[in-house]
Specification:
The protein is built from 19 helices and 7 strands. It is of the alpha/beta class. It starts with 17 loop residues before the first helix and ends with a helix. 34% of the residues are buried.
């Protein structure tokens, strides 16, 4: 939980510094295990590669080579706050933290004024960490511009929302945006092992059963902070029962959530995914939402879920309701922009749309039938009238002769041969009769009669 910038009564205290944090021996496990150098950070290999802005912020003494502002964008628990602390602890820098939820323009200007005075009188730089910068209003973000422009502060901002939508353009243009990815399984395993054995962590007080480890990583959903918080609660629950081992039952009791059986690399993953797709196809909206909830609660990658929803929009609904694909793609983009848990909302909207829409798989079957013919060798020469006639000598070969420009024909439909000879009269697309496709079927029939002339 972020520290409040304001007391319940009286004047607002100064924002807490890094040294204040380090003096708190009763800090939560997630805070105690916070890396103290970039070498201790797990994951985020792309953001930490040699020569990256974060590496230069930590290592470069020459201010001409260090970036003046960095915006860290990623889902919760990927290390945004951790990286800010590592940057602050490197070199002789003052670290100041502001929460965009609590601080106003006045507090921002006070921090900037103190940083400017400190730099002028002592030469000491200030690292200003702004958490949830997307919650800053335009005027609050404007108040940061002079300090970033003149490097009175080194700004490290964190956001879970797409900064290109939530951060003003002048601040973006003075910043480097680094995208942080969800931690991989091996990274989370390393994190848990460190927390169990490190003197800064649980120091070997408990062990973690295999089933509890699987449940912990699932319930954590890739959020490192959430995983460590749950581990700390489960360890305390085990020790209260005079047990040195944390099992799945103890973990479930401690975090008050069922440890769902769901192995993302095993049969449960495939079974639940299959049931999810078949429920949408079968128009059972309630079952569809149930399986969506199971995947979300089990920590399934929301990008995987979104991809399945987009596929279902075309494969199961298709031309019966062409807007289903638009909704599904919008949901996928929203998940990428919002992250979780907010991403569950557009996902649910898309799932409800697909499950309740009229169904058609005709376009899906049509492309598969066309591909099957191509693979079988049915790919004769392109009719001469349709061949490219723009290069020198093409007309001498008869390319483009007798081509009828569709826009000059009645109704914008030109009767002429379009497919190769051996595919004349082949109907790949066979429209259904559900939803909007019933009207499409009537139109396709009319179009084929006009285009094919007497060959219909």
């Amino acid at each position: 939980m972020e520290e409040d910038l304001f007391s319940l009564a009286g004047d607002a205290p100064a924002p807490r510094t890094l040294s204040d944090r380090n003096r708190d021996h009763r800090a939560p496990l997630a805070v105690r295990m916070r890396p103290r150098s970039l070498d201790e950070v797990v994951g985020q290999h792309a953001a930490l590669e040699p020569g990256s802005p974060l590496r230069r912020l930590v290592a470069a003494d020459d201010s001409r080579t260090a970036p003046s502002s960095v915006i860290l964008w990623g889902p919760p628990g990927t290390g945004k706050t951790t990286l800010a602390y590592v940057v602050a602890s490197s070199g002789d820098r003052e670290f100041v933290e502001l929460s965009a939820v609590l601080a106003g323009v006045k507090e921002v200007r006070e921090v900037v004024d103190r940083a400017r005075s400190r730099l002028r009188t002592t030469g000491k730089e200030t690292v200003l960490f702004v958490d949830e910068v997307h919650r800053f209003s335009k005027s609050q973000q404007d108040a940061l511009l002079p300090s970033v422009e003149n490097r009175w502060v080194t700004l490290v901002a964190a956001t879970t929302e797409n900064p290109y939508f939530s951060v003003i353009s002048p601040l973006l243009s003075r910043s480097i945006v680094l995208t942080l990815e969800p931690l991989a399984r091996e990274d989370l395993d390393e994190l848990v092992d460190r927390a169990l054995t490190s003197p800064r962590g649980l120091d070997g007080a408990v062990t973690l059963a295999d089933d509890a480890r699987e449940a912990l990583l699932r319930l954590g959903g890739g959020d490192a902070r959430k995983i460590l918080t749950s581990l700390e609660a489960a360890a305390a629950a085990a020790l209260m029962k005079d047990s040195r081992e944390v099992d799945a039952a103890t973990l479930a009791q401690a975090v008050n959530r069922a440890a769902l059986r769901y192995d993302r690399a095993g049969d449960q993953h495939y079974d639940v995914t299959s049931a999810f797709i078949k429920s949408m196809r079968g128009s059972d909206v309630d079952a569809s939402l149930h399986y969506l909830a199971r995947m979300i609660e089990a920590g399934e990658d929301p990008r995987f879920i979104a991809r399945r929803v987009v596929i279902a929009a075309s494969e199961e609904v298709g031309m019966a309701d062409p807007t289903a694909l638009q909704v599904a793609v919008a949901a996928m983009q929203a998940v990428q922009m919002l992250g979780m848990p907010e991403g569950r909302i557009p996902l649910a909207q898309a799932v409800v749309h697909i499950a309740t829409a009229p169904k058609s798989n005709t376009s899906y079957k049509a492309i598969d039938a066309a591909i099957a013919d191509v693979r079988a060798g049915k790919a004769g020469p392109v009719p001469p009238a349709l061949r490219d006639a723009h290069y020198s000598g093409a007309k001498d070969l008869g390319h483009g002769e007798e081509y009828v420009y569709a826009h000059d024909a009645p109704h914008g439909v030109a009767p002429q041969q379009y497919p190769p000879d051996e595919l004349i009269g082949v109907d790949y697309y066979r429209p259904g009769t559900h939803g909007a496709e019933a009207e499409v079927a009537r139109r396709v029939d009319a179009l084929r009669r006009i285009v094919r002339g007497g060959r219909a």
